[in-house]
Amino acid sequence: MRSRSAAALVAAAVLTATTACGSPSGSPDSDVVKVGAILSLSGIYATLGPAQKNALQMGVEELNRTGFTVGGRKRTLEISYADDRSDAATTGVTALRELVQSQKVPVIAYGLGSDTYVPQLQRQPVPMVNMLDSSYPGILGLSDHLFLTRGASPTYVPGCLYYAKRKLGTTSISVITAKGEPYGEGLTQLVTKSAQAEGVRIAANSEFPLSSTDYSNAISAAVAAKPDAVYLSSVTAVILPVLKQLRQSGYTGPVIHSAGVNPNQAKAILGAQYDSIMKDNYDCAGTLPTTSQDPAAQAFAKDYQQRYDEYPQDLTMWAHDFPFIVAAAMTKADTVSDPAKIEQALKEIDVPQGTVSGWLPGDGGRLFTDRNARTASEVTAWCPGQDTLRSAMVFDVKDDAVVDPTFPQETCG
Amino acid sequence: MSQVLVNGVFLGCLFAVVAVGLTLVYGVMEVPNFAHAGVIVLSAYTTWSASAAGLPFALAALAGIACGALVSVLTEVLAYRWIIDRPAAAPAVALGLMLILQNVALRLYGGEGRSLDTPYDRVLLRLGGVSLSGVKAALVVLAVVSLLALHLLLSRTSLGRAMRAVAQDREAAAILGIPMRRQYALAFLIAGVLGGVAAIAYAPTFQVSPYMADEVLLSAFVVVVLGGLGSVWGAVAGGLVLGVVEGLGSAYLSPAYQSAFGFLLLVSILVLRPGGLRSTNARRVA
């Protein structure tokens, strides 16, 4: 008798737990709207995810101070975070299924792994807003459900060569690429193309396997060609160890990349010698909140630095704006739970109030043009002895060529 | 060419130090010790923590090596010892231990890379057209010193002789009164010390992170098989051969396939000499 009672209790407990795990955490029309975010909070891309999470949190708090109205009711936003452990193909896909199928979130922010998410999106469509992946060829061709909130690589890589030729006097460049890392491989294609357009000679094109921890051979090949500058093709966590070994090998010339390295990352990964290693270092990517002329971006940069004691990268601005973009889309769609309507609304919203990234509006003031929202591009330079970056050139790219370049005064101070 | 060989020797020394720790444990206990990667990671983090806390690098490095030795012995005492009679379970246990140790590091220190600074970070040795950074030169020196010390221990001391006896025939060694458990623990202790040496020598060239040793461990297993399972000097020779082959392949074919050259070499050796460079019918530690 006692064992039957125990069995019944266990069965009831299992049933309760299963039901709790299997159902979404909020009702479809709750006042607290839950959306998802899949970020690289650990692994080789862990320089990206934590900063995005910090900024998303700031954006959510700011949005929730006033809330947003959908269906005549005031709503607040909540984000369910998942760590893809820098492995979108396995951990990331599992997280996506959990968010979509169990938690039933109507929209998801994410960083990397677009191609691995496509099969799941075909089974159960949901709009996914990318806040990071500018790899070339672009991610938007993979699925109609993907949105990109940043300029893709072709909107900033030409600026690297443009600046190098005119301001650094570069006539030849060696490129070191992380083989098997899509962002880096795309950058190398674009650098090669831009170098041809600018008349800069590619002195050497060397590669190393992504999983490698010793880059001696790739570095030797790149330096032996005696280039005027070296371009490192990959993300921060990959290129900083390469940069360290490049400087350890005795190379002292200019180093250019498009990784978005901030001073905190430089200190953490390069160690005590970071300042000398980062000297003569140029980064071309999206405009930074710290160097932006936009007052909203500057205010965000100040708040972020005060709150997290960390230098805000460009991706923090984009992450900060995600909650405002989602709220605007839900308001326009008049639903907090229908992914299809929210996806359609994303394509139609104007640049939302509360955003700080300095979005360049498309036709009719719309945020997205062909599912891509973007900001201006910028070359930044390391300020030796000052733990900061300065804006060296702000520009836009049209038809693969740099347009409207401006060269701010030396403002390291 | 000279620079390529120097790069190859550096890589070979790194592979050798890690591989010798693996082959020592395999020789004595027949365990493919994947957890060695976790030992290296925790050693590196301990050194980094001690260094960040203000300890001089030498003391921080000693703390890291001590941590490596302790964690390695703990893996034997808490896990491998209990499956000594079930060798089929060893790979699964070893993989599980590796994941546990790496996740401990992830939990304690987070996923972001950390830099391990040394007093010789800025040193650059140049000879003719060949250059070698201070951190890489230090790795070569540490590898040579620790492997020589191991050679002396194994060949000139009763502890070493007992370990070799266990490796050659476990049952016979037990009958002769050699305390087996002590020998197992000793093998893991030495492997842990070598893991610690690898960590403090290698981390300054790369970065400290929970997954920093995965690639090196894979190459070290290639070296262990290349050199002959259980053969210490086979592992040293295998490490150097692998390092130089990867270097030459990178220089004259493509650096993108650096690791692939190692596996190509492994397949070639297994076809030509299935027992490895120093093949033997018996397990051994020598």
Automatic annotation (TrEMBL), chain A:
Keyword flag Signal: yes
Pfam families recorded: Peripla_BP_6 (PF13458)
Transmembrane segments: none
Signal peptide: 1-22
SUPFAM superfamilies (UniProt xref): Periplasmic binding protein-like I (SSF53822)
Keyword Signal carried by entry: yes
Similarity annotation: Belongs to the leucine-binding protein family.
Protein name: Leucine-, isoleucine-, valine-, threonine-, and alanine-binding protein
Lineage: Bacteria, Bacillati, Actinomycetota, Actinomycetes, Pseudonocardiales
UniProtKB/TrEMBL annotation, chain B:
Record localization: Cell membrane
GO terms, biological process: amino acid transport
UniProt KW keywords: Amino-acid transport, Cell membrane, Membrane, Transmembrane, Transmembrane helix, Transport
Protein name according to UniProt: High-affinity branched-chain amino acid transport system permease protein LivH
Pfam annotation, one family: BPD_transp_2
Residue stretches spanning the membrane: 6-27, 57-80, 92-110, 130-154, 184-204, 216-245, 252-272
GO MF: transmembrane transporter activity
InterPro entries according to UniProt: ABC_transp_permease, BCAA_transport_permease
Species in which this protein is naturally found: Actinokineospora spheciospongiae
Keyword Manganese assigned: no
